[in-house]
Amino acid sequence: MKKALGLFALIVLIGTLFCQDRAKEAAKTEVWEPVPEKVTPGDQTAPPSDAIILFDGTDLSAWRDKDGNTPKWKLEDGAMTVVKDGGSIFTRQGFGDCQLHVEFRIPVEKSGKGQDKGNSGVFLQNRYEVQVLDSYENETYVNGQAGAIYKQYIPMVNACRPPGEWQSYDIIFTAPRFNEDKTLKTPGYMTVLHNGVLIHNRAELKGNTSWSGQPKYEFHSMEEPIQLQDHSHPVSYRNIWLREL
User: Taking the domains of the chain in order of start, what are their residue ranges?
Assistant: First the structure.
């Protein structure tokens, strides 16, 4: 009996030493610093604590028109809406790499089809567009439908809600980099979720999202404005916030 107990104790000791050795080996790959900054998440689509608020429904102070003036867009019921001859609007602050949240509402229009129905757009760095359009039951070229990285990438799925309902884009943007001689060093990338559904997964931008012609990169600074497009349709926006990455 004593021999059996002694053998059991030896096995336990060997097992303990083995576990200690494994723990020491595992500790070699543990990283304890730097400790990530604490951020309080927002409730659902509310901004997290470290977000830059671009529009909270109360004023247009973070935005300007093309001439630097206060935008003419209509401010009502916590939303801003494109008005006739209002023009596109731009953030007063420029941004590079970022996480952008935008909510938009396509108007209920009895007329119009294709690109002439609920057309607008969200432009990162004033030149890389995620298309806004009524694509719920509205046929158009698929690299120009809602959620498309305009004329470059077709969304993986159509996640549109009907006109009149609020929708959202969550865009993770990695800005392109340029060399000192202004040639492209690394391209830009976009990951996009439409109403919480992934529609682009780190898509490599081919250049500016142009209406005609092939996309190409043109040198620009790292910090450029976000643009919301006036395309002659009364599209509304609300709850816009951004986290710099």
Answer: 52-244
pTM for the structure as a whole: 0.89
Residues 73, 60 contacting (CB under 8 angstroms): yes
Tens digit of pLDDT for each residue in 93-135?
Answer: 999 999 999 999 999 987 899 999 999 999 999 999 999 999 9
Q: What is the enclosing helix (H) or strand (E) of 3? A: helix 2-27
Residue 53 φ/ψ region, left for φ over 0, alpha for ψ in the -120 to 50 degree band, beta for the rest:
beta
Which residue in 162, 166, 185, 167 sits closest to 175, CA to CA?
A: 185
**Is residue 127 within 8 Å of residue 241, measured between CB atoms?**
no
How crowded is residue 41: how many other Cβ atoms within 10 Å of its Cβ? Answer: 9
Q: What is the CATH number of domain 52-244?
A: 2.60.120.560
pLDDT per residue over 34-62, tens digit each?
Answer: 878 877 888 878 899 999 999 999 999 99
Quote the strand ranges of the chain, DSSP E: 52-55, 63-64, 74-76, 79-81, 89-91, 98-105, 120-124, 128-132, 166-174, 177-178, 184-186, 189-194, 197-204, 227-228, 236-244
Q: Return the structure tokens found at 36.
A: 């990530």
Burial of 145 from C-beta contacts in 10 A (0-12 / 13-18 / 19+): buried
Are 206 and 130 spatial neighbours (Cβ–Cβ below 8 Å)?
no
